[in-house]
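To: structure desk
From: M.T.
Subject: fold request, one chain
Message: Could you run this one when you get a chance? Sequence is below, nothing fancy, just the single chain.
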Amino acid sequence: MSAAMPTVVAELGGLDLFSWVYSAYLLTRTVALPIFGKLADIYRAKTLYVISIVVFIAASLAAGLAPNMSFLIVCRAFQGIGAGGTFALVYIVLTEISAPAERGKTLSLGSFVWGLASVLGPTLGGFIVAYFSWRWIFFINVPLGFLSLAGIARHLVEIRRKREGVVIDVAGAATLSATVLCLLFVFLLGGQTYAWASPPILTLAAAALGFGVLFYLAETRAQDPVLPIAFFRIRGFCAGNAAVFLSSFAIFAFFGFAPLFIQGALGKRPMEVGTTVLALSLGWSIGSLILGRGINRIGARRASGAGAVLLAAGCALTLSFSTATSTLTCFLVFGLVGIGMGFVALATVIVVQDSVEPSDLGVATASHQFARNLGGTIGVGICGSIFTARFSRAIEGVFAGGLADTIPLEMAEHLRGHADSLFRPEIQAQIPAAVLPLFQQAVGEAVTAVFGVTVIAALVCLVVCGLLPKEATPEQM
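Reply: Done. Structure tokens follow.
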């Protein structure tokens, strides 16, 4: 999608709305995760899986036909619902069809496929935009979706039966959705669109708190709650979800800001940026595959701890990055971060699943995906505000030093108001060689501040992994 956005804006207009193409998808996907998880414990997971894919196909087809930006945003919101359901249910289905001793290996294959898609998706997207039309980024999901449906119909066997006599927790689902939406808006808008202490952000925070209280009250009264409050008294459930929240906070900050460092501070071309950042997804996939084959021997607790150590080490190494750092060094360090995340994500989902009864497998698995998604969103939001503040100060420092006076006045005024132009190689090429390193250093300082936050998140994740119950290992299932 990222590769297509400049072309989409050029054709549909709506530059002031383009960020909502991402946000609408992100918001609805996050909200859909726990709801589909609960539904999977009540209804047949295979049926829900099919429904999720159908919703995604229909939304993709509509998005490809979008006549304007507003319509595209609505379609992306429905895409998020389908993607959220699919994302939650795929791990539930993989767990259901696996023997306990093979669960780690099966789930690791799911993570590997996700990583492979993360590698191929942006490359394929750029190719489609260059040689076809941005609309085919959405249209291509239609035949792929139908292929998935055919495979599910032919090969996927339903394991669990539908539960009878269950009352749907509408109040819980509604208040949980409202809480999450308000909370995500706080971190998506705070520090960037609005100041943290501004009335809109404070109002959203108060609304999130209020809906959170209503959610708690609804769950204490519900016959079959969408997210049982009793789960929060289970050590494995809480620690496992907290660990993946913190690790996701760290790695998604890398997904968001590592490209800015490579392009803005190192001055590399987009192709080099994409190749280097792929190390995060590749490392995640490789880490999952390695652990999937060995988790029965070392156990989930030790595996998550090892992953947190690798994650923290990788994050700490980025603090030594400078404008002289090579892309090979970045690739290796990002790969280490990805491997650590692969360990933590796989080990903690097993811990969370093992902490509840089999009848609650769906909601437990979805809660893990929800924590992962929420951690990534909040991480990018907080780090975005930190980056913006540090970058603005650093740029002002460059101008205050006087060395930027060698830049033509028109360009200097443009850079003051549009400092993000520094991430474009064609703009960097117009800046005098004596001054460019100062601007690159400003970018590097701002991104390094973000990397510093990821170190804190990774270290706290390591502490939380130490709180995981020792008995939560596959051999004990």
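Reply (cont.): Residues 168-223 form one domain. Let me know if you need anything else for the meeting.
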